[in-house]
């Protein structure tokens, strides 16, 4: 039953009607509204007495199947919250440009959604190893973790000269693995094997992806 006062006939709008609506909405506004709605429905991250930091991954992707008026593919730069699995913001990269100028507008949108970037860790690829990016995040109390490569030769040389071999690395002891023997159930029946087939017993390691499969061979047929 429809609620009182509902005069709709229950029909679903056609895909073209929805498309005409979406192309008239500001993409950034829609992205922020959806991000806030998803965050309101996401379960809070349980710290369980441990200190944790919000990590946001910034990465650029080319949208498959989306084209601009001149035929170019749509290139987006997105900010992904690794704790909730929500894309907080995304901006379209301008034609004849790259991801570097889009980094600052993207982080401004992220700050609008979160309210603050204090203590947030931004993870990006080597392209974003830029002094301007680091200064921007430092002003807002955030942190930047990137890979240093040849696009920053001075930083790369300084990091390469550090005594990395002397840095202690903590390792956890490996979990012991024990071998067990379990009977393999035939695939044809859950109660008893089909006549003429055998179901041998195989060994498998505990913790493996699944039970070992037996190579079942048909029994020899008696000639009449």
Written account of the structure:
- Residues 172-224 are annotated as: Disordered.
- It contains five helices and seven strands.
- With 224 residues, the protein is an alpha/beta fold.
- A five-stranded mixed β-sheet has the order 3-2-1-4-5. Strands 6-7 form a two-stranded antiparallel ribbon.
- A hairpin with a 4-residue loop joins strand 2 and strand 3.
- It is globular.
- The termini are far apart.
- Mean pLDDT is 77; it is low at 177-181 and 187-216.
Find the CATH topology of the domain at 16-41 and 55-158. Answer: Transposase Inhibitor Protein From Tn5, Chain A, domain 1
Read across the widest sheet, the strand sequence of neighbours is: 3-2-1-4-5
Spans of at least 5 consecutive residues with low confidence? 177-181, 187-216
What does the main sheet amount to?
A: 5 strands, mixed
> Mind telling me the CATH superfamily name of the domain at 16-41 and 55-158?
Transposase Inhibitor Protein From Tn5, Chain A, domain 1
Query: What is the multimeric organization of the chains shown?
Result: single chain
Query: Into which percent range does the helicity of residues fall?
Result: 25-40%
User: What is the terminal-to-terminal distance?
Assistant: 70 Å
Give the second-level CATH assignment, the architecture of the domain at 16-41 and 55-158: Alpha-Beta Complex
What pattern of helices and strands is seen along the backbone? Answer: HHEEEHEHEHEE
The tally of helices reads 5
What is the CATH C level class of the domain at 16-41 and 55-158, in words? Alpha Beta
Q: Would you tell me the overall average pLDDT?
A: 77
Please state the structural category: alpha/beta
Region (Disordered): 172-224
Biased composition (Basic and acidic residues): 213-224
Organism: Paractinoplanes hotanensis
InterPro entries: ISAs1_transpos (IPR047647), Transposase_11 (IPR002559), Transposase_11-like (IPR051698)
């Amino acid at each position: 039953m429809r609620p009182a006062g509902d005069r709709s006939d229950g029909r679903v709008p056609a895909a073209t009607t929805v498309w005409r609506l979406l192309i008239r909405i500001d993409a950034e506004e829609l992205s922020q509204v959806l991000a806030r709605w998803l965050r309101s429905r996401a379960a809070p991250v349980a710290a369980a007495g441990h200190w944790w930091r919000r990590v946001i991954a910034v990465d650029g992707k080319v949208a498959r199947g989306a084209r601009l008026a001149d035929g170019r593919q749509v290139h987006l730069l997105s900010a992904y919250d690794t704790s909730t699995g929500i894309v907080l913001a995304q901006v379209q990269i301008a034609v004849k440009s790259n991801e570097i100028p889009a980094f600052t507008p993207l982080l401004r949108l992220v700050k609008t959604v979160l309210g603050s970037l204090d203590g947030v860790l931004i993870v990006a690829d080597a392209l974003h190893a830029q002094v301007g990016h680091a200064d921007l995040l430092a002003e807002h109390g955030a942190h930047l973790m990137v890979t240093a490569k040849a696009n920053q030769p001075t930083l790369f040389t300084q990091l390469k000269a550090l005594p990395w071999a002397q840095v202690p690395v903590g390792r956890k002891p490996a979990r012991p693995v024990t071998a067990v023997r379990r009977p393999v159930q035939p695939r044809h029946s859950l109660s008893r094997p089909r006549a003429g087939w055998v179901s041998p017993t195989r060994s498998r390691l505990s913790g493996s992806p699944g039970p070992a499969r037996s190579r079942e061979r048909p029994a020899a047929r008696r000639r009449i």
